[in-house]
Structure formats: C-alpha cells, structure tokens
Amino acid sequence: MIGLIWAQARDAAGRPVIGADNAIPWRIPEDFGRFKAITSGHPVVMGRLTWESLPKRPLPRRTNVVITSLGAVIGMATVPTHGEGSTTPPTMVEVAGSLQEALALAADAPGGDETWVMGGARLYAEAIDVADRLEVTEVDLEVEGDTFAPPIDPETWQPASTPDWTTSASGVRFRHLTYLHL
Ligand SMILES: NC(=O)c1ccc[n+]([C@@H]2O[C@H](COP(=O)([O-])OP(=O)(O)OC[C@H]3O[C@@H](n4cnc5c(N)ncnc54)[C@H](OP(=O)(O)O)[C@@H]3O)[C@@H](O)[C@H]2O)c1
C-alpha cells in the first residue's frame, strides 16, 4: 500500500497551499498526532527540502527515505542507535535518487507493506499516480504559499467519508479526508 499524506489550506485564488518558505504556515498539534499515528512503524518517503524543513530529523520509529540528486543529506549521521532485541521499530535514514528507487527501499524497510509519501509538491505530483490512498487534512485557512498539493481527480479518487470540521486547540478549523483509489 502506498499512501500520500498531507495538510492543505488555500490561497486567495483557492489553490491548495501546503507550504511557504520551506515551512508549513499553520500549526495544528492534533494533525501532527494523526500523522504520527498513521506513519509510525512504516517507512516515509520525502524530498530533500521537506527533510530539511523537519524540526527534528529523522522522524523516529520509521525509515526515513529522502530523495535527492546530491547522494547525501544533512543530519544523516544523527540516527540514534537501536538496541538489539528492541521491539520498537527502528529509526533509519536512506537516500534515493528517484521516487522509484525510494519506493523500492521503502518496500524493503521494516513495516514496508505500507509506505507513506510525505511531500513535498513534486513528490506528491509524481507519487499520486502510483498511490492507493490519500490522507488529506483540510485546513480552513486562507494563506499565501509557494508550494501546492496535487489536484485530486474525482474520477480516480473517492472520499471514504465526509467528516465534520473540528476546531484545533490552536483555534484553526480542520478535517481529515481519506480518499481511496477507485
Ligand atoms: N502541508 C504538508 O502536509 C506538507 C508536507 C510536506 C512538505 N510540506 C512543505 O512543502 C515544502 C517543501 O516541498 P518542495 O516541493 O518545495 O520540496 P521537496 O519535494 O520536499 O524537495 C525537493 C527536492 O527533493 C528532491 N526531489 C523531489 N522529488 C524528486 C524526484 N522525483 N526525483 C529526484 N529528486 C527529487 C530534489 O532534491 P535535490 O535538489 O537535492 O536533488 C528536490 O530539489 C515546504 O514548504 C514544506 O514545509 C508541506
């Protein structure tokens, strides 16, 4: 199973903003919690800029596969050691030169029956063609951005439910939509 996971707001033109200045221009703690619950124990695949934008690298208890043409990324050496016999999924970092290579590395990683592509824009646009599932958090906010989510073609993707809006502890309204490939 290959899933894409992202959160999107909208700009004044209605475009689905996912980032601005290599950061996410809102903060929804509940969405971080959901991201962690969905992806922990499974490999995550991301572009180099998304990797560099993470406040703490690598994401723990997951294999972090970073796509770059550079052959290496900052922070690779900070991977904590994993005690022998530990039952916690290991934290690992792998570097790939393409989406195809990244997905192959992810499939061989612990929990690789499920891989989560976690951005950014170019990766979402490329990976949506091979994905089985989309986990999209809609954020009820108008913001200016420079990075956008891919279009979700209703001929290809069906929402699994129509959830209600929730108000975050941070005051922003949001809702989670799961789309399944038709
Ligand atoms: N809202 C959300 O859910 C969410 C999620 C993730 C990210 N974001 C935001 O998105 C922005 C970052 O996204 P981005 O689109 O600018 O950058 P990105 O996709 O994270 O990284 C771009 C870099 O990744 C490498 N890359 C990506 N796709 C590749 C491919 N198919 N083949 C080879 N290399 C590839 C290249 O690295 P090299 O230049 O090293 O070759 C490229 O320059 C930030 O603002 C971040 O906060 C938001």
From TrEMBL:
User: What function does the entry list?
Assistant: Key enzyme in folate metabolism. Catalyzes an essential reaction for de novo glycine and purine synthesis, and for DNA precursor synthesis.
Q: Which UniProt keywords apply?
A: NADP, One-carbon metabolism, Oxidoreductase
Question: Which domain of life does the UniProt lineage start with?
Answer: Bacteria
Q: Where does the DHFR domain start and stop, copy by copy?
A: 1-181
Task: Kindly tell me the pathway this chain contributes to.
Answer: Cofactor biosynthesis; tetrahydrofolate biosynthesis; 5,6,7,8-tetrahydrofolate from 7,8-dihydrofolate: step 1/1
Q: What catalytic activity is recorded? A: (6S)-5,6,7,8-tetrahydrofolate + NADP(+) = 7,8-dihydrofolate + NADPH + H(+)
Q: What is its EC number?
A: 1.5.1.3
Tell me if Cell inner membrane is a UniProt keyword of this record: no
EC supergroup of this enzyme: oxidoreductase
Q: Name one Pfam family in it.
A: DHFR_1
Upper lineage is: Bacteria, Bacillati, Actinomycetota, Actinomycetes, Micrococcales
Which family does this protein fall into? Belongs to the dihydrofolate reductase family.
Q: Can you say what this protein is called?
A: Dihydrofolate reductase
